[in-house]
Amino acid sequence: MLDTLTSIIEKYHQPDGRIVLALSGGVDSRVLLDLLARYKATHNGITCLAVHVHHGLSDNANEWAERCSLWCRDYGIELFIEHVELNLARNVSIEQEARNKRYQALEKHVKRNDLLLTGQHNADQLETFLLAMKRGSGPKGLSAMPECTSFAKGYLVRPLLTISQAEIVGYANLQGLSWNEDESNQDIRYDRNFLRQEVIPSLKSRWPNIEQSVLRSSQLCADQESLINELLHDRLVEFTAVDGGLSISQLRHQSELARNQLLRLWLGSRKSIMPSFVQLSLIWNEVAMAKADANPRMNITSGEVRRFKDRLYFVERLSDVSSWSEFLPSNQWVELPEKLGRIQLTDKSTETPLSLRSPRDDEQVQVHFKPQGLTAHPVERGHSRKLKKLFQEYGVPSWLRTRTPIIMYGDQLAMVVDLFVCKEFHGDDCEILWDKV
């Protein structure tokens, strides 16, 4: 099994990337932890860490986290414990909510070119296929889980996909490993547990090779999905603007089948969870086709789809940043909140109309995201206006107006980054660099 892990890591690992293990402490990730420690012992210079997500759903959750800490300490692998709060409101799937929060927590630890290892094995393929079939999924949903896929700024890798759970448990027993037993795994109110306990044993008793058959079907679905995406790729590129918006007028000329697939591809490129067939229809009929003077939006699991002028936009569900502010020292990067990148006030080095005069000694430079009540006089305009009106005139979508950095010199608005410089603060001394990645 170590050979399997080694070959997969070497297949995808890049020199500047780390290995991050999603460690629940169940037998699958516990075996991966042991294998990773063995791999690390023979590969000097590679950085390995583990992340345990504490959902707080079980009375044993604290004990599980403590055991993960002990195991990682014994192996010399750094462990991060992420506490998450779940939305347990009515009509919310606990399984889906826990999964979403788990991956959001893991995403914070996956940097550029990192590999995130998860413990899915070959029986998980069958469960995933059956769950997708229950939901009425198309080829994408019925496709096999890939061995490697993009995730955050790195990649999610499943090293145990070709390994059976019997082999995993056998390895754990042979090595004398202990692991966490989640009592909820026996609760058949959860769909995956129902399949695992009640359905799949009967299927395998009747058709012993069903796992292999489902894997073939999943792979065929994946091949079909890949072919469709390949054929539509150029159209998606043509229809998508630099700011990520999708052209409604160009979508109008597509067949309904092509339009729906283009919408799925576009949402996938925005890192959105796929909407249902009904949601997809509503996105087109109630958002794209809404009246010209409307401000339509459609909530889906991972965010919302909105329309601005002739384009659709996917907007992630992010926290309010209007109360955030920070001083901007010269020539130092300042990290912005909520995935908004970083910003720097620097000496002017490029030819740009968006350049500033140097701040005076009594003018502290500050950045914030609160446009309410501000008035500005852009250098190219003949008079000042409320910032709300200027955002409209410059064509800034409503949801970006509180996510665009505002530069203050003292208590005066000096600049809206990438949009305009105010007349009194225009100069040829310095500029603002906004790294959005």
Uncertain residue segments: none
CATH-defined superfamily of the largest domain: HUPs
What's the rounded overall pLDDT mean?
92
State the major sheet. Answer: 6 strands, mixed
Query: Helix fraction?
Result: 25-40%
Total count of domains: 3
**How much strand content do the residues show?**
15-25%
- CATH fold field value of the largest domain: Rossmann fold
Q: Specify the structural class.
A: alpha+beta
General shape: globular
Q: Number of helical runs?
A: 13
C-alpha end-to-end distance:
37 Å
In angstroms, what is the radius of gyration? 26 Å
What does it look like?
The chain is an alpha+beta fold. It folds into 3 domains: 2-121 and 139-184, Rossmann fold (3-Layer(aba) Sandwich), CATH 3.40.50.620; 240-316, Chorismate Mutase Domain, subunit A, CATH 1.20.59.20; 325-435, no CATH class. The protein is 38% helix and 19% strand. The protein has 13 helices and 21 strands. It has helices spanning 2-12, 27-41, 61-75, 94-107, 122-134, 139-142, 165-174, 191-206, 210-239, 248-252, 256-269, 277-288, 387-393, and strands at residues 19-22, 48-54, 78-83, 115-117, 148-151, 154-157, 246-247, 297-300, 303-308, 311-316, 325-327, 334-335, 342-347, 355-356, 365-368, 375-376, 385-386, 406-409, 412-416, 420-421, 430-435. A 6-stranded mixed β-sheet has the order 3-2-1-4-6-5, with helices on both faces. A 5-stranded antiparallel β-sheet has the order 11-15-18-19-20, with no helix packed on it. A 4-stranded antiparallel β-sheet has the order 7-10-9-8. A hairpin with a 2-residue loop joins strand 18 (406-409) and strand 19. Helix 5 crosses helix 9 (210-239). The two termini are 37 Å apart. The relative contact order is 0.08. The model has no long low-confidence stretch (mean pLDDT 92).
